[in-house]
Amino acid sequence: MTRLRSIAFDPVDLDPLATVAGHVAVFVGADGKLGRAARRLDRLTRGALTRATTAESWAKKPEGEGVTLAWPAGMAAEALHLIRLERRPGLTEARRAGASLARMAGAKPLVVLAENLARVPQVALGLALRGYAFTDHKSERGEPLGAASFQCAKPEEVAAAAAPVLAVAEGVTFTRDLVNEPANVLTTTEFATRLEALRDLGVEVEVLDEPQMRDLGMNALLAVGEGSASPSKLVVMRWRGAEDAPLALVGKGVVFDTGGISLKPGAGMEDMTMDMGGAGVVAGVMKALALRKASAHVVGLVGLVENMPSGTAMRPGDVVRSMKGDTIEILNTDAQGRLVLCDVLWYAQEVIKPAAMVDLATLTGACIVALGYENAAVYSNEDTFCGQFLRTAQTEGEGAWRMPLAQAYDDMLKSPIADMKNIGGRPGGSITAAQFLKRFVKDDVPWIHLDIAGVASLKTDSLLAPKGATGWGVLTLDRLVRARFETRPEAETDAEG
Question: What are the backbone dihedrals phi and psi of residue 220, each rounded to the nearest 5 degrees, phi first?
Fold first, then answer.
């Protein structure tokens, strides 16, 4: 399990700056005007800050980025980081500043002179998330992360505002760890065990096994795992921070996807360890809500399966009956995520009785063809709910783009021998997958489907994450819970930090 950098918020103390070991950081605006702490550092370094921040290149530097002075004269510190940041930065700029500090400081201890800077908790969030590294399976795990101290004018107030923000960072980290794990480690059983550990945080966790799901008629989900030695499971996590009808978060948890009998090409199949990304996001949100004691009622449901080819695996041409009672003709066993989700969505509506539902899945390669790696595909049956989600995602800087639903796409799922096919052909593949799921959503339940195939794990670094699992969606869904489902009127304000 990855441990984030320890972050504290302390009173401003400029006297020991000359003798501080490790790394020191300070913020300076585009105009180069030095605050009290920066002026003290400027005197110690014989005008180095003045020279750096009056150079023509300083004002052109993007806000949130900076320069490093190695072994600055007059200081014991190994490095002094100057970050270009206005005193009242935007949310993204504050996080970018924290991410810059994470890259610059590496694992070294860090003193950050924040003084009267606004949005210090968001700087701390950027520092925590960009400093993440998944090293559980390395023999040399690297230098442990040194502690960070943010020196602030009102440290107690800042610490109180930062606590829920850093709780969400823990949720993002939980998601990333799950998605980064290899499939021989994160089996369906191990996944369920890690989710059961959320009980220690006050989350109610129930694990349904195969006989229980069979009794419920969840034959679509069970069909996916028939070829695997790992037992299929349904894990239900409930955070009861209020007594309202809950928000249901539903995640696809395919711990490894070979494609089944419709076998995927060998090249790139190793990436299919991340096919449980939707379930990983749901788990991360549930951990974040529990850590920050959210005043909301949220239930996370994840279907955990492994899609393997064997003598017992489902075949193209099979017909299975879902929990809803509809029959599904299997044309392609690689289109299996929708079979998992349709039964979990129906279970959520029949048993949990949610006020609204959001499902997440690394569902289709067609989503990546349409939107690349910048945006998740968003589908919904309710404009107001969808609009609120999209605004929230934009605020959090997590790319999301709404896609259409229409009868013409639904017609592509018609089967001559069953109620529907599990695929609609190559055209509009992400859309027809969403249309398939919509058949299992009741008309009076606001619902959003998120195809996160392109954003759950990246081959390159992003603003707040190294390459690999991003944790996309935890920040947005936590903010959505605050804005729409929490009972405290100040909840949205708290989220700003």
Answer: -70, -50
Structure tokens at 22: 């490790």
Q: H-helix or E-strand containing 438?
A: helix 429-438
Give the tokens for residue 459: 């081959």
Structure-block tokens of residue 283 = 């788990």
The single-letter code of the amino acid at 165 is: V
Q: How far is CA 107 from CA 65, 132, 142, 434, 469, in A?
A: 18, 10, 9, 43, 20
Strands (DSSP E) found in 294-334: 297-307, 319-321, 327-329
* Tokens encoding 124: 């701390």
Q: Would residue 293 be called left, alpha or beta, if left means φ above 0 and alpha means ψ between -120 and 50 degrees?
A: left
Exposed/middle/buried for residue 483 (C-beta within 10 Å: 0-12, 13-18, 19+): middle
Burial label, 10 (beta-carbon count in 10 A; 0-12, 13-18, 19+) = middle
Q: What's phi and psi for 267, nearest 5 deg?
A: -65, 120
Q: Are 287 and 171 spatial neighbours (Cβ–Cβ below 8 Å)?
A: yes
User: What's the first-to-final CA gap in the chain, in angstroms?
Assistant: 26
- Report the 10 Å Cβ neighbour count for 56: 6
pLDDT digit string, tens, across residues 243-268: 999 999 999 999 999 999 999 999 99
Which two tokens mark 404?
């259409």
pLDDT value of position 143: 84
Catalytic residues: 264, 338
| Nearest residue to 374 (alpha-carbon basis) of 352, 354, 399 | 399
Interval 319-352: pLDDT, tens:
999 999 999 999 999 999 999 999 999 999 999 9
Tell me which residue has tokens 């309710």: 382
Q: What is the pLDDT of residues 451-489, one digit of tens each?
A: 999 999 999 999 999 999 999 999 999 999 999 999 865
Residue 79 neighbours by CB distance under 10 Å: 19
Residue 290's contacts (CB-CB under 8 Å, 6 or more residues apart) are 198, 201, 202, 203, 239
Give the number of other Cβ atoms within 10 Å of residue 19's Cβ.
Answer: 9
Q: What are phi and psi of 91, to 5 degrees?
A: -60, -50
Return the structure tokens found at 42: 């400027």
Instruction: Identify the H or E element spanning 98.
Output: helix 91-105
- Cα-Cα-Cα-Cα dihedral sign, residues 199, 204, 208, 212: positive
CA within 13 Å, CB half, 406 = 5
